[in-house]
User: What shape does this take?
Amino acid sequence: MTRPHTSTFFTDVAGLRGVAVLLVVLFHARIPGLDGGFVGVDIFFVISGFLITGLLIREFEKTGTVSFKGFYARRCRRIIPAAALVIVVSLIGAALTMPLLRVFKQSLDLLAAAANLANWHFIAQNADYLAGAIDGSLATHFWSLAIEEQLYLVWPMIIFAAAILVARTPLRHHLSVRSSIGLVVAALTVGSLIWAIRLTPVDPATAYMATYTRVWQFGVGGLLAVAEPILIGAARRTAPTRIVAALLGWVGIAGLVASAVLITATTPYPGAAALLPTISTALIILSGQVIPADVGTRAGNAFTAGFLLSVPPMRFLGRVSYSWYLWHWPALVLFETQTGSTAWPALLAVTGVALLIAIASTLFFEEPLIANAELRRNHSASISVGVIGLVIGLAVSMTAGVITVKVASGDTVSNAALSYQSVFGQESGATSGPVVPNPFQAYDDRPSPTECLVPVGDYGPGRECAFGPGDGIPVVLFGDSHAEQWAETLRAIGTAHNWRIYQFTKAACPAQNLRPRTHRPDPFNAADCVRWREDSLHQIAALAPKIVIFSSLSTYVPDYDESAQAWDDTLAVLRGTGARLVYIADTPYPNFQIADCMSGALDDWTRCNFRLDDVVRHEPILTEQARGRDRDIVTLSVNSLLCDGDTCVPARNKILFYRDESHLTATAAKVLEPELTRQLDRRRFDYNAR
Assistant: This one.
């Protein structure tokens, strides 16, 4: 039985949209057992490729061309106004509930979202969506919408070019339009898939959010659209063909369930693992093409996957899926900001409220625009509506950013008079007022040159990181970013003692030799970190340094024995150099953005206090020294100046201690230099280490 033309709406695909948004929403609500719910985005990509490619092909077959203006007009009515509304409401919510610096950061994220560049914005930040690195951003979910918008911009041109390549050249005698389009889409699909698989283990953040590593999923849907006449023709064939198609639909459903349950945040994604939800989605759509769901029981199709997806509740979820996707995430972020609750029952209730908002938005805002007769007739008017929405989103985001900066700049203090004595040499009765650096400047208050901290994913520095006279005493600074935070401070000490300091530091790469874990691809056990640490230790040994100063984050692993063994491995190599070893104890770990907090707490710094023991910390060197071991290592610690007992403070006497969730500001580290020197002198440390 052939599919009627009226069913190009594809009721089963509408229900599949409902499945996609349900998986994403439940994943974000932290529902137990749905660790892979983020694959709902993959489903959306395949559906979009199928629908958009099919629409373009049918238009070309009917008219011999593609109306680009008409295509973009439909997208402008359908996508941009709703997104602009969510962006504006999200910024209002941020302004009412978040500290000033977080509002500024939200405005930057939402500005990128309004410009349809959210994915590249987050890639530039090396944000790991699956690891929750951007959970606090109101624009997190816009990364996938940005990919679709970018593809919508170029996909009609690709399909049109592939079509006219045949239709308007002698090739039409040898190749059909659909075949030409199919070959082009297949080439893009294969190339993108290979790129995604190769990039995922090397640069997972880029692989997950880059447009070029997601084209293949769009392409899989496009290939289904190319094959649509063949699939529909199969409906006329024998009963066994239809039985196979029905089975494939249920295999697809099972594949999506398996994807949502078995794939987790530790799964390398979207490499080969993304084939499971992508192919599963394709099988469901394929099944629905062979056995049209819209004819239901009249064709004996009541027990197909397509018919299940076509039931009214699923179709309704599909109808509001775009709006629910837009609204649910800001609702969750704002709720967590206000309450601090991450309990899944509470988050599930919030998504329910977001669904009600989405229904209202769909029925009273989006659909009236989409169905407006004048806008449907006048493509220029539709495009104008889209441009207005785009401008509103950009303008409101930029205005919010400018206002927050202006407000934050209104009350500052100079750091000219800051010294160890002014900060720590007197009692601090102040718990409010401006601080140095200003919270808006804190993130960039870090040691220079920044190139000497090798970034995550990279292997070597972009320059030689050696400081001091060439014939000076060879001294090494070794470790991760918690070692690097002391770089300028140690150079100040080195200047007074003729040191030639060689810096070996890499972000998220511990000095201790933590072993790789195949089941959990954290940055600290990635291949680039392991290789960098091994080569750095070889280079350090070759330098024959007189002093090795090292430090490292104390929260990498929760297991003490694992941490202790890792340190023993590294210490064995460092002791082999014959150098004097100096360990700087890890500084307190707030585990939240201190600068963000302080931007909204300059009237009461104590709102940003935290407990030293709230985070599991392991420093085997200190523990073993207390037991009588590792006494050959000189240990330094400034934590007694940063904390009063177990209560750690964000600021003291006008100085802001932290630039983010764990690192000292460069200003604080410099001011603490006399304390490090005092402790070295107390130990009768030989600065020449002869």
Notes: Confidence is low (pLDDT under 50) at residues 1-8, 295-299.
